Structure formats: C-alpha cells, structure tokens
C-alpha cells in the first residue's frame, strides 16, 4: 500500500497510513460496542432464570428473546438521533457518544438483582438496559458505516468498509470466548447464579477504553468539507433532505430485510437452535458457533475486495439466490445434525452465503447518500429494517417452535431473503454510481 497522498479522493485522509490508523481506531470501538450487544445473546441461556419467573427452558428463552427484540425498538430512534448528530457534529463525536450509552446499558445489566430478590423490577431493569443499548447500537451502525466508508479510498472502499463486520463478528467471538472461558472455569450452578454478570462488567470497562480511543480519532475529510460549505441543518431540513432520496431509503430497507434475518438466524440464534432443537450440549453449541464465526469473520475482507472488482450488486445477488434456494434444506439438515463436524460444516456453508450481504451492506448504503445526510440515511432506515426483521428473528423462531411448527420459521427466513433478492436485482450498481465521489 502506498503512503502517497490521496487528497484527490473525497473523504480520504491525507495519507494511506493515517487512513489505516483511523480505520483501525474506529473499528476497535465498533468491536467493543458489538461485544456488549452480543454478550446478552451469548449468556441468555444462563441468565434467563435470574430475570424471569420459573418456567420451561423454551419459555424462559422466549422471554429473554422478547427483551432482545425490545432493544431493537430503540434502534430506529438511535439511528435518527445519532445519525443526525453525526451529520451535524461529526462522525467522531457520534461514535464516542454511542460507546458511552453502551457502557451504561452493560453496567445496568451487571448490577441488577435477580427476579427472586426484586420480582418484576428485575425484568423491567433488563428492558431499560436493553433500550439504552438499542439506542447506542442504532447510532453506532450509521456512524460507523459512514466513517469507515468515508475514510476508505475509492479503489478499495468495499475492502476497508468490510471491517465493520469483521469487528462486529469479532465482538460476537469475544462474547463467545468469554462464555467458553467461564464454562470451563466455573460450575454450571455458579455460572447461572452470578457468573453471567462477569462479561457485562468487562464490557462496561472496555467501553470506557473505547471512549478514550475514539476521542482521538481523525474526522473524515468529507464531513469537514461539507460542514465548511453549508450551515447546520434544522431537524425539518434534515427530514426534507432524507425525503429527497426516497428510492435510496427504500433500497436500504429492502436490501437489509433478508440479510438481517439471515444474519441473526445463523449467528445469534444458531447457538440456541443447536441446544434447543438439535440437542447439543451448551458447551458444544458454543464451540460450534465460535468456530463458524471465526471462519465467517475472515471471509468479510475477501468478499469486500471482490465487490471492488466485480461490483456490489453481483455479490448481493449471489447471497439472495443462495439464501432463497438453500435456507430450508440447510436448516432441516442442521436440525438433524448429531456430530460437531456435521453442524459446523452446515453453519459455515450458511455463513459463506450470508457474507455476500454482511461484507458490503455498509458501503452500499453509504454510497447511496450525499455527505450532508449520509449517517442519517444509512442509520435510520437500516435501524427500522433491522428492528422489524432482525430483532424479531429469534423471537419468531422460538415462537414457532413453542407452537410445534418450528419449520414455519425456515419458510419465513426464505421469504425475507427472496424479497431482498428482488431489490438486489433491480437496484443500481453503487460502486460506479455513488454520491461518495461528489
């Protein structure tokens, strides 16, 4: 990589080395945010008994999944408020604020007493904590996607922006690594009683470190140039600016729907599916999930680089076709898997297909909007779509299972991916027709 100036590329820093430092710095904060977010899902098998009344495992997991979905309700608010904040005050300021909110949510979960001690106040506090974290993540996605896309140069924008999902998946892996560590160092009774609080305390502490790192980030050239050329916009002007791009907004919603359902099905819900449906032990399910996510993480830059060569739309379309044709047979096979190699192979196959969405969805969305509303345009419609589809995926899966019709969920996932495939097939190629180079 050359260290020569790249000032001719709008949104790139002055040198390749400073661009790399900025991308790494922004990505580390993203990792901490998503660790905090996914610790909830990774440890819900253990803390569900602490926050909810006694019931069978599926019902308790259903309650925990409902709170997980509630956290998604705040993501549109976070997408709007933090997106507008990022477009007014800078990407760096928004990224720092989002980490602070995540820190507060994690700390609240860590210190909340159990249902046995304070009754219904316990799940109420859990809901409050997830609302704070939902607000944080809703703002994190748009600000992070915008920051990485603006920092990346035109030639390798898909490659560099893919690191948003590299660090997102790494956050999941760290959550699972924490789970594996505690599973091997604590008795199950201790883990269910109080050990599950440890990862939330760690998450709150890491968020403080991430705040310090993000305060030292370089602001993007694209934002600085845009801020110098126009006065700050009012809320009404911001809304009008977003409404001036209706096709881009609808494209974000449409391309996200199937991708986010597939992502949450084969990452966060997969662990519970392996335990609750396929019959694996909790530790084996965690191991399978962790190894598949490690492979998945390493795929992201390769798929991002591929999109720089062949375009974004062919990569998205490949995910849509594979997901539409393969979801039902793959989940059916996973349901009957009885060995670790079988389950691991099936999950990796699924995640190879999902990589066609996750590796490039951030850059595609950023390329759809001008600088003045980019963080808002990326974050808000994405947050709406991920709240409706991603946040409810696990709940629907457990709901169908509780009714005795688990395979209806397989058809639901397939239908969502098919709907997004129609968007991929008709959307413009954003690599070559982008607002990023204006």
The gist of it:
This protein is mainly α and 438 residues long. The chain contains 20 helices and no strands.
Structure characterization notes:
By secondary structure, the protein is an all-alpha fold. It has a single domain, classed as MFS general substrate transporter like domains (Growth Hormone, Chain: A, Up-down Bundle), CATH 1.20.1250.20. 80% of the residues lie in helices and 0% in strands. It has 20 helices and no strands. It has helices at residues 16-51, 57-73, 75-89, 91-111, 115-118, 121-151, 157-161, 163-185, 188-193, 198-214, 221-229, 235-243, 246-266, 268-276, 282-310, 312-335, 340-358, 361-366, 374-403, 408-426. Helix 19 packs antiparallel against helix 20 (408-426). The protein starts with 15 loop residues before the first helix and ends in a 12-residue tail after the last helix. Mean pLDDT is 84; it is low at 1-14.
CATH topology: Growth Hormone, Chain: A
- CATH superfamily, by name, is MFS general substrate transporter like domains
Shape: globular
How many helical elements? Answer: 20
Task: Give the averaged pLDDT, no decimals.
Answer: 84
Percent in strands: under 5%
Which CATH architecture would you pick? Up-down Bundle
* Cα-to-Cα separation, first versus last residue: 24 Å
The Rg value, from CA coordinates, equals 21 Å
Low-confidence stretches: 1-14
Observed structural traits:
Growth Hormone, Chain: A; 438 residues; disordered N terminus; mainly alpha; globular
């Amino acid at each position: 990589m050359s260290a020569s100036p790249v000032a001719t590329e709008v949104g790139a820093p002055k040198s390749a080395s400073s661009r790399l430092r900025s991308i790494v710095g922004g990505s580390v904060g993203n990792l901490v945010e998503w660790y905090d977010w996914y610790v909830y899902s990774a440890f819900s098998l253990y803390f569900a008994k602490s926050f909810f009344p006694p019931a069978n495992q599926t019902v308790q997991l259903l309650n925990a999944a409902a709170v997980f979905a509630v956290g998604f309700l705040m993501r549109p608010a976070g997408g709007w408020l933090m997106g507008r904040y990022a477009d007014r005050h800078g990407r760096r300021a928004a990224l720092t604020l989002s980490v602070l909110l995540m820190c507060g949510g994690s700390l609240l979960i860590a210190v909340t007493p159990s249902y046995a001690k304070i009754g219904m106040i316990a799940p109420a506090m859990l809901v409050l904590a997830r609302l704070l974290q939902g607000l944080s993540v809703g703002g994190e996605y748009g600000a992070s996607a915008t920051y990485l896309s603006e920092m990346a140069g035109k030639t390798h924008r898909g490659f560099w922006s893919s690191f948003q999902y590299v660090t997102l998946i790494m956050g999941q892996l760290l959550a699972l690594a924490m789970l594996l560590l505690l599973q091997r160092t604590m008795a199950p009774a201790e883990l269910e009683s109080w050990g599950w609080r440890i990862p939330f305390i760690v998450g709150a502490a890491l968020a403080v470190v991430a705040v310090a790192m993000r305060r030292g980030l370089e602001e993007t050239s694209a934002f600085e140039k845009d801020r110098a050329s126009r006065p700050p916009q009012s809320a009404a002007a911001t809304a009008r600016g977003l409404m001036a791009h209706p096709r881009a907004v609808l494209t974000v919603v449409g391309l996200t729907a199937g991708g986010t359902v597939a992502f949450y099905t084969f990452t966060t819900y997969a662990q519970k599916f392996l335990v609750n449906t396929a019959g694996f032990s909790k530790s084996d399910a965690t191991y399978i999930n962790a190894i598949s996510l490690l492979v998945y993480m390493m795929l992201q830059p390769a798929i991002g680089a591929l999109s720089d060569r062949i375009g974004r739309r062919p990569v998205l379309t490949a995910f849509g076709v594979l997901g539409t044709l393969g979801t039902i047979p793959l989940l059916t096979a996973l349901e009957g898997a009885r060995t670790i190699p079988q389950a691991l192979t099936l999950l990796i196959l699924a995640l190879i297909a999902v990589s066609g969405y996750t590796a490039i969805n951030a850059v595609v969305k950023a390329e759809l909007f001008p600088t003045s509303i980019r963080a808002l345009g990326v974050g808000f419609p994405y947050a709406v779509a991920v709240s409706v589809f991603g946040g409810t995926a696990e709940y629907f899966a457990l709901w169908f299972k509780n009714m005795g019709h688990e395979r209806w969920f397989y058809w639901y996932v397939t239908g969502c991916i098919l709907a997004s495939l129609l968007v991929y097939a008709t959307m413009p190629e954003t690599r070559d027709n982008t607002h990023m180079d204006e």
